[in-house]
Design brief:
Length: 189
C-alpha cells in the first residue's frame, strides 16, 4: 500500500497564501476591465467646422430612463452653447442625435485551486458568475447641408441601477468627447 506524501504546514500555508494573492489579482484585473469607461471620438477634418453656428436635434435611440434622456440632451445643449452654437430647428448647420443602448454581460470568475485529501495536483475550487450591464452612448453630428456625418463620440461603461450614477458617467464621457471636438466648431469663445 502506497502512502500519500505529507505536506509540511509551512508549505501548505505558503501555497494557500499564493493562491489567495493570485485570486485577488485576478479579481482586480477583471474589475478594472469591467468598470473602465472607454471613450472614442472620430471626426471628418475636412468638414467646414468654422461654418457650423446652429444645430437641431433628430431623434435617435432614447436612454432607457426618460429623465436621463432629457438630462443628456440638456447637457449636450449646454456644451454646444459654450461653443457658441445656438439651437435652430428651421435652418440648422448641424444635426445632433444620440443613441443610448444597454447590454447585459456575464463572466465566469474562477474561485481558484484548492487542496484536499487527494493532494495530487489539487482540484478546481469552483467559481461564480459576475453579471453586469454595459451602457453605450453614441453622439453623432451631421452636416445639415450635405447630410454627411462629421463627428462621432462613443462611450461605453458599466451601467448602474441608480439613474444619478449613470448621468454622472454620461457627463464624464461627454466631457471627454467634447474635448476632442474641433476647436473651430462654433463661434470663438
Amino acid at each position: 500500500m502506497r502512502s500519500i506524501p505529507r505536506i509540511s504546514p509551512d508549505l501548505a500555508i505558503s501555497i494557500s497564501g499564493w493562491s489567495s494573492i493570485l485570486a485577488i489579482i485576478g479579481l482586480a484585473i477583471t474589475a478594472a476591465v469591467v468598470y473602465a469607461q472607454k471613450v472614442n471620438v472620430d471626426s471628418n477634418p475636412a468638414a467646414p467646422w468654422a461654418t457650423f453656428k446652429t444645430y437641431a436635434w433628430v431623434n435617435g435611440i432614447a436612454a432607457p430612463d426618460e429623465l436621463n434622456e432629457q438630462r443628456l440632451h440638456a447637457s449636450i445643449d449646454d456644451r454646444l452653447a459654450a461653443r457658441g452654437l445656438t439651437k435652430n430647428t428651421a435652418t440648422p448647420d448641424l444635426i445632433v442625435t444620440t443613441s443610448v443602448t444597454t447590454q447585459q454581460h456575464q463572466e465566469l470568475v474562477p474561485g481558484g485551486f484548492a487542496y484536499g485529501p487527494w493532494w495530487a495536483g489539487g482540484y478546481y475550487g469552483g467559481g461564480s458568475v459576475d453579471t453586469w450591464v454595459e451602457g453605450t452612448l453614441v453622439v453623432d453630428f451631421y452636416d445639415a447641408n450635405t447630410k454627411q456625418m462629421v463627428w462621432r463620440g462613443v462611450a461605453t461603461a458599466t451601467a448602474s441601477e441608480k439613474p444619478s450614477k449613470n448621468m454622472e458617467k454620461m457627463n464624464k464621457a461627454l466631457n471627454k468627447m467634447f474635448e476632442k471636438l474641433p476647436s473651430s466648431c462654433g463661434i470663438s469663445r
